[in-house]
Amino acid sequence: MIFLKLFLTFFKIGLFTFGGGYAMLPLIQEEVLANAWLSQEQLINFIAVSESTPGPFAINISTYIGNVMGTEFGILGGIFGAFCATLGVVLPSFIIILIIARLFEKFKENKIVDGAMSGLKPAVVGLIGSAFISMAKTVFFHSGFSITLNVILLFVLFLAMLVLAIKKVHPIIIICLSAVIGIIIGYVLE
């Protein structure tokens, strides 16, 4: 049944992902596409929406996917699907934090635990980089985009990263400006 599958899939994602929502992206992408719950383009569109809505990324995206998949059983099915997927992604972190809080004093200076955490840091960066490359391929090299649009989009990406790194402008300003630029480009190049 879809509700159990949603719960177990997102439980697995929550259980085997360290580093937050962005580190979850490759797993979310793999599972969602393998189960044909969303297309790559739909997933990327919702990632953009999920980042501009309040709340943690992983919860937003799991709730959305659960709702979409459960809606085939009506409105209540959509709500229950959203609940199952959200519970699945949150429950592992909740359990792990309870265990860590209970054992923290005992293991806080353990060399094995310290080594494991040091090893996980580059893996998290790699997972985030993998998600970035995967999304960039879809955004910049989608068959419907022209070469001109790809160059403009790459320039906007580079400019946004440069402004964020050098000027320390608030990310909300960058998001709003990028949306305005996207609207203008859409009208000019269409």
Question: How would you describe this structure in keywords?
Answer:
mainly alpha; 0% strand; 2 domains; 190 residues
List the helices and strands and how they pair.
Layout: H1 2-15, H2 21-34, H3 40-51, H4 57-70, H5 75-107, H6 111-140, H7 147-166, H8 171-189
Helix pairs in contact: 1-2, 1-4, 1-5, 2-4, 2-6, 3-4, 4-5, 7-8
Structural notes for this entry:
By secondary structure, the chain is mostly helical. It has 2 domains: 2-142, no CATH class; 143-190. It has 8 helices and no strands. The longest helix is centred in the middle third of the chain and has 33 residues, at 75-107. The model has no long low-confidence stretch (mean pLDDT 82).
Query: Strand fraction band?
Result: under 5%
Sheet with most strands? none
Output the number of helix runs: 8
The H/E string reads: HHHHHHHH
Q: How many domains?
A: 2
**Number of extended strands:** 0
Mean pLDDT: 82
Shape verdict: globular
Unreliable residue stretches: none
What is the terminal separation in angstroms? 43 Å
Q: Helical proportion?
A: over 70%
Based on secondary structure, the structural category is: mainly alpha
Radius of gyration: 19 Å
Summarize the structure.
The chain has helices at 2-15, 21-34, 40-51, 57-70, 75-107, 111-140, 147-166, 171-189.
